[in-house]
Amino acid sequence: MEQKEKILVVDDQIFVADSITSMLDWRGYQCQMVYQAFDALDLLARESFDLVLTDINMPRKTGIELLHDIMKSWPDTAVVLMTALGKIEDAVEAMKFGASDYIEKPVNSEQLFIRIERALERRRLLIESRQRKEYLEREVQRQTQQIHHHYIATLDILISTRGFHDKETKGHSRRVAA
User: Fold this and answer.
1) What pTM was computed for the model?
2) How far, CA to CA in Å, does 96 sit from each of 37, 78, 142, 149, 176?
3) What does the alpha-carbon distance between residue 50 and residue 111 come to, in Å, rounded to a whole number?
4) Which of 23, 28, 56, 174 could be 63's S-S partner, Cβ–Cβ 3.0 to 4.6 Å?
């Protein structure tokens, strides 16, 4: 079976983290789990993950705070937030700060897989779009340099052909071009 993307599951409820990790492992994802946001940040500093699936309500550092840290340091990582205490304000705030999606607990496995795939596809498209933009910027710079080179070469040719008729004009044209 082909290995899918790497997912980090962050939930302070060990049973929930273990259950979700097992479901994702079964679907072929490469999964790791931690039980608090600080451990997630430590792991993210050492390894790259395609997606972080995190609970919102955790002690010491919330999932929203973790989202802020991830978006700041690892903007190519997709983040899906989960909560048992679903408030529309949390969902709006999460999406405003870069979350890919928001899921209410208890998590339905099929809904989870669909949302994870959608978040990963969005991530792929954003990365591809950024890479395409960077390529186009490099290409524009290369073409601009090439146009500049051709412009200078054209001026040199014009100056040299003008000088064939008149030595005085040739010297004047070279001085003007310089």
Assistant:
1) 0.71
2) 20, 14, 37, 46, 57
3) 19
4) 56
